[in-house]
Automatic annotation (TrEMBL):
GO terms for biological process: fatty acid biosynthetic process; secondary metabolite biosynthetic process. This is Beta-ketoacyl-[acyl-carrier-protein] synthase III. Belongs to the thiolase-like superfamily. FabH family. Keywords: Acyltransferase, Cytoplasm, Fatty acid biosynthesis, Fatty acid metabolism, Lipid biosynthesis, Lipid metabolism, Multifunctional enzyme, Transferase. It comes from Thalassoglobus polymorphus. Homodimer. It comes from the Bacteria. Its EC number is 2.3.1.180. Catalyzes the condensation reaction of fatty acid synthesis by the addition to an acyl acceptor of two carbons from malonyl-ACP. Catalyzes the first condensation reaction which initiates fatty acid synthesis and may therefore play a role in governing the total rate of fatty acid production. Possesses both acetoacetyl-ACP synthase and acetyl transacylase activities. Its substrate specificity determines the biosynthesis of branched-chain and/or straight-chain of fatty acids. Residues 280-284 are annotated as: ACP-binding. SUPFAM superfamilies: Thiolase-like. Residues 133-211 form the Beta-ketoacyl-[acyl-carrier-protein] synthase III N-terminal domain. Its main location: cytoplasm. It catalyses: malonyl-[ACP] + acetyl-CoA + H(+) = 3-oxobutanoyl-[ACP] + CO2 + CoA.
Length: 352
């Protein structure tokens, strides 16, 4: 079931960019997550290593972000490889025959290639017989993939749908950018969605975007607007750029507003949520929103101290780890929220 309510958007002006925030929400019930899995590379990169190699201040990283280490892929590994490993674990966890999977949606903004899609590469490596496509919504990519896959299942157009999120950020951030490079890591996660009971699924969710804030977090060169040239490479325009201060302010406000809205529309309070699985971008963003909303620390799942910001992989990795640690059970209400470049966000209360 899918419903849409409250279509009146509000606009504010937070300094560098206009911010668009709508009160429109939807629901999507009758689905369940049958299995989940995650993968992070073996290579651990500590703050101290970044200090030795690039002169990054370890204390600044911890104090400003809460990150102590992250994982980086070896040269021979690509985004699709991580997504394949996470997907295999999700499929094993579900006990479903892979030949029954009839859809694959991959949320990533670090694809192996511009063409073919990363989803097609994952589909081929897994030996699946299904359509496959990417959703490019940066750190909200997994939420976009989850909602899209769930729609196919809820309408009967797919029986088992893989929703995957993964990013290989260490390849797209400039190591010389001491304020941005330490924030990101590599990783992927996946869930298998299928039909559930009438009360399972997305009790309430919101997907949103505000392209006016695109310049706050972008990669200038590499697309049709600004192709890669020798001059662009010398200028470092193939790398991710971020206006950290403006993104931080937007994220704190957006996280609190969208969570508050989805809880309100769900008829729930913070006390009704078993776990808050939020995008692992910065512990200060998470804590600021938690303080504003009165979320107890024991309900916040945090692993960014070990992995950093894995973008599209962030939520499914945290979701899988929370499930493996026994913090998620059937019937629990889990609140997930991803937010990032675009600007984009995706928030949902999922009845497990």
């Amino acid at each position: 079931m899918s419903t849409i309510t409250d279509e009146n958007p509000t606009k504010t002006t937070p300094g560098a960019a206009r911010t668009l925030f709508t009160r429109r929400t939807s629901s999507l019930l009758g689905i369940q997550i049958a299995g989940c899995g995650s993968y992070v590379p073996e290579m651990v990169v500590t703050n101290e290593q970044l200090d030795q190699e690039y002169g990054c201040d370890p204390n600044w990283i911890v104090q400003r972000t809460g990150i102590r280490e992250r994982r980086h892929c070896p040269p021979e590994m690509a985004t699709s490889d991580m997504c394949v490993e996470a997907s295999r674990k999700a499929i094993r966890s579900s006990g479903v025959d892979p030949q029954q999977i009839d859809l694959l949606v991959c949320g990533t903004f670090t694809p192996d290639y511009h063409c073919p899609s990363t989803a097609c590469l994952v589909q081929d490596k897994l030996g699946l017989d299904c359509p496959a496509f990417d959703t490019a919504a940066a750190c909200a990519g997994f939420m976009y993939a989850l909602v899209t896959a769930s729609q196919f299942v809820a309408t009967g157009n797919a029986k088992y749908a893989l929703a995957v999120g993964g990013d290989l950020n260490s390849r797209i951030v400039n190591p010389k950018d001491q304020r941005t490079y330490p924030l990101f890591g590599d990783g992927a996660g996946a869930v298998l969605v299928t039909r559930g009971t009438p009360h399972q699924g997305l009790v309430c969710y919101q997907l949103g975007s505000d392209g006016s804030g695109g310049p706050l977090l972008d990669r200038p060169a590499g697309g049709t607007h600004t192709p890669i040239t020798p001059e662009a490479i010398v200028a470092g325009e193939q790398y991710l750029r971020m206006d950290g201060r403006s993104v931080f302010k937007w994220a704190v406000r957006m996280l609190a507003d969208t969570i508050e809205l989805v809880l309100e529309k769900s008829g729930m309070s913070v006390h009704d949520i078993s776990q808050f699985v939020l995008h692992q971008a910065n512990v200060r963003i998470i804590n600021a929103a938690a303080d504003q909303l009165g979320i107890p620390q024991e309900k916040l799942f945090v692993n960014l101290d070990r992995y950093g910001n894995t973008s599209g992989g962030s939520i499914p990795i945290a979701l899988d780890e929370a499930f493996q640690e026994g913090k998620i059970h059937r019937g629990d209400a889990i609140l997930m929220c991803g937010f990032g470049g675009g600007l984009t966000w995706g928030t949902g209360v999922f009845r497990w």
